[in-house]
TrEMBL record:
The chain crosses the membrane at residues 12-35, 47-71, 78-101, 107-128, 148-168, 188-208, 245-264, 276-296, 308-327, 333-356, 368-391, 411-428. The gene is tmk. Pfam families: Thymidylate_kin (PF02223). GO terms for biological process: dTDP biosynthetic process; dTTP biosynthetic process; dUDP biosynthetic process. It comes from Actinoplanes lutulentus. It comes from the Bacteria. This is Thymidylate kinase. It catalyses: dTMP + ATP = dTDP + ADP.
């Protein structure tokens, strides 16, 4: 946090945001209470309170589509200042109407109109502010700045607003003092809301000049008509998979939260709980939101933010489904906490990606869609879910010590959660920047500080074949037979091995296999093999595959997983991550596993009369672990492995290998006919 607060421009903008957010929250509470206080009839009070809150949705429907265009078209600093001055005048007028003799009906009507006008121009202020942030801070600190602003907006300021209003009201009641109408707690809160706008306008105008002016790209875009700019923004969102996935995903995450909030009152009844449970569930969601935003990045560390975004949508939506199945309040609270955490982390990841990826001349329009869309989706989800659960019926089911209502509320939660999971998976697929990397393994590695890396991109015009197996399995013999058969077909064949295929590899081979007193430790051995493999892949394997050769290797990554992982009992996941990093994620097209019982294989080694190296000299138990590790690897990926009994005749094994390889070669020949044998 300190790293971004040291930046003067951002620090001042954050203070502006805090003041504006505080004004927003206290204004929302005070305006509703002020309007309802004009009437004595409970029904009229409820209508007045709900009307001033509901009217906040209308501006998004009317001005929302063009608010972002205005933020991109005009100077953002002047835009924010002008909007804040207008909001100061509008919000200040609300408590003044009754002081000048306005009737209760007129007072409520003007409060509603003023709220509408204030919310309308706020839609211009929000994208202008959002678009200005990336121009104040380096990209590497965008996520931290987002954490700070989101926690301030949705965590600190609403609590402070509620506490201040509560303290003013309670203090007045306990003191027994009689204050004039213009100095009542609600009126004071409305004055605070108005003057917070004046303060932010002054700070932005005099203290944050960095966000003023327009870049050359924005100047050029401003030459277009308003309609063309509006159309260009929507076309960009629709035609860019990452942005489209982000926008849809953010909407899905907040829709999940909205469904839970809208259904919470009826859902609390279905749990057999009272009115307090509703407020508890409501508060727990926002607690989860704050925890997700505040702690999420520290937990996942270096996990790809594109992947994290989709995962969070699935988490939030899956938690909604969990709520639909919960039969006790304690389970429901856990589900609500996870819904909030998932939505909060998705919003943080999504806005961070948008800040980093969207060009300055388009940023206002994209953020207008996101910010305004979030408001609409959240409010619509709350409203519609509340209506739907009110129309449904319920049936109580006894579960021994517990009883639960199977109602429209639970059906809505299950269906809404399932749709959210579908949206999350769709967003994940559109935005995945580590295709081919297992999701759970990547997540687990990131939690431990070692995220998996995607395969390095290169044009692979050849085929990579690897022979694996225990000692004495006959790998060298099969490598020779296969290479000779392929050369007879007129193919470019590169025969290699690990370790020792290069000059550097030969020196490493001596270190890891020769029997010496100062032999490398288990971890040092694993690192040496990884060093050999990194050099081997970079200098031999990748260049050969790029030119269309068939690379036949005696051992590769799986040997490290079996020997250093299972044999030396080092953590297999760490060995896997190390090997993936060393090879750039390069995987063979075919792995031929020659399975041999360790006793048979070691007897073959002894019959050579060359003496046993360090690995061949290991115990029988060591080689048993190695064998079963190879078999487990093959079972986990059967499409890429060919497992053969190494006790079969040599010619039979060779025929099985060439037969299996023929299909791979025909596919490559079809894709790269220039490399096919003539």
């Amino acid at each position: 946090m300190r790293s971004v607060l040291r930046l003067r421009g951002f620090r001042r903008l954050w203070l502006v945001l805090a003041a504006a957010s505080f004004g927003d929250w206290i204004g929302i509470l005070a305006t509703g209470l002020f309007a309802s206080a004009q009437f004595d009839n409970p029904a009229a009070q409820g209508a007045a309170f709900g009307g001033t809150i509901a009217v906040r949705l209308l501006p998004a429907l009317l001005l929302g589509p063009i608010a972002g265009v205005i933020a991109d078209r005009f100077d953002r600093r002047y835009t924010m200042v002008i909007v804040d001055l207008l909001r100061f005048v509008i919000y200040l007028s609300i408590p003044l109407v009754p002081l000048f003799g306005g009737s209760p009906g007129l007072t409520v009507a003007w409060a509603t109109i003023a709220t509408f006008l204030g919310e309308t121009i706020t839609l211009i202020w929000i994208p202008a502010k959002e678009a200005a942030v990336p121009n104040l801070i380096p990209k590497s600190r965008i996520e931290i700045s987002n954490q700070l602003t989101l926690i301030t907006t949705y965590g600190i300021t609403p609590i402070l607003a509620a506490l201040l209003l509560s303290a003013l009201t309670a203090g007045l009641q306990q003191s027994g003092a009689s204050l004039p109408d213009w100095a009542q707690p609600v009126q004071i809160a409305l004055y605070i809301n108005a003057f917070s706008r004046l303060a932010t306008a002054i700070v932005v105008f005099f203290g944050i000049k960095e966000i003023g002016g327009k870049s050359a790209a924005r100047e050029q875009a401003a030459e277009q008509t308003l309609g063309k700019q509006f159309t260009a923004g929507w076309k960009y969102i629709g035609s860019t998979p990452m942005v489209r996935g982000l926008v849809v995903g953010i909407f899905g995450a907040f829709a999940a939260g909205g469904i839970v909030i809208g259904a919470a009152r009826t859902y609390a009844v279905s749990l057999g709980a009272g009115e307090a449970a509703f407020y508890l569930l409501f508060g727990t969601i926002f607690m989860g939101l704050a925890l997700g935003i505040g702690l999420g990045p520290m937990i996942v560390r270096d996990l790809s933010r594109r992947r994290w975004f989709g995962m969070n949508i699935v988490l939030a939506s899956g938690s909604v489904m969990f709520l639909g199945l919960a039969f006790h309040l304690s389970m429901a609270l856990v589900g609500a906490l996870l819904v909030g955490a998932g939505a909060g982390m998705a919003f943080l990841a999504g806005t961070t990606l948008l800040y980093a990826e969207i060009a300055d001349e388009l940023r206002g329009r994209v953020f207008a869609v996101v910010q305004i869309g979030v408001r609409m989706v959240l409010l619509l989800a709350i409203t519609l879910s509340g209506v739907l659960v009110g129309l449904g019926s319920s049936r109580r089911v006894d579960l021994g010590a517990f009883s639960v209502d199977v109602s429209a509320t639970r059906v809505l939660l299950l269906v809404g959660g399932a749709i959210g999971i579908w949206v999350g998976i769709g967003s994940f697929r559109q935005m995945d920047d580590k295709k081919g990397v297992p999701v759970l393994a990547d997540l687990w590695g990131s939690l431990r500080g070692r995220p998996l890396s995607p395969a390095e991109s290169f044009v692979q015009a050849g085929v990579f074949v690897v022979f694996e197996g225990g000692e004495g399995a006959g790998k060298s013999t099969q490598v020779t037979l296969l290479s000779e058969a392929l050369r007879e077909q007129g193919r470019d064949v590169v025969v290699t091995r690990e370790p020792g295929a290069t000059d550097l590899g030969s020196r490493i081979r001596g270190l890891v296999l020769n029997k010496v007193e100062d032999a490398p430790s288990a971890r040092a051995e694993a690192l040496l093999y990884a060093a050999d493999r990194a050099h081997h892949v970079a200098t031999v394997v990748r260049p050969a595959l790029s030119r269309g050769a068939v690379v036949v290797s005696d051992r590769y990554v799986d040997s490290s997983l079996a020997y250093q992982g299972a044999g030396r009992t080092l953590p297999v996941q760490e060995i896997s991550w190390l090997s993936s990093w060393a090879t750039g994620g390069l995987k063979p097209n075919l792995v031929v596993l020659l399975d041999v019982e360790p006793g048979v294989g070691l007897t073959r080694v002894d019959s050579r009369g060359d003496g046993a190296d360090r690995l061949e000299s290991e115990s029988r138990a060591f080689h048993e672990r190695v064998r079963y590790a190879f078999l487990d690897l093959a079972a986990a990926d059967p499409k890429r492995y060919l497992v053969l009994d190494a006790s079969r005749p040599v010619d039979e094994l060779a025929t099985a290998v060439t037969t299996r390889l023929a299909g791979l070669l025909s596919e490559v020949d079809e894709a790269y006919p220039e490399n096919a044998p003539s």
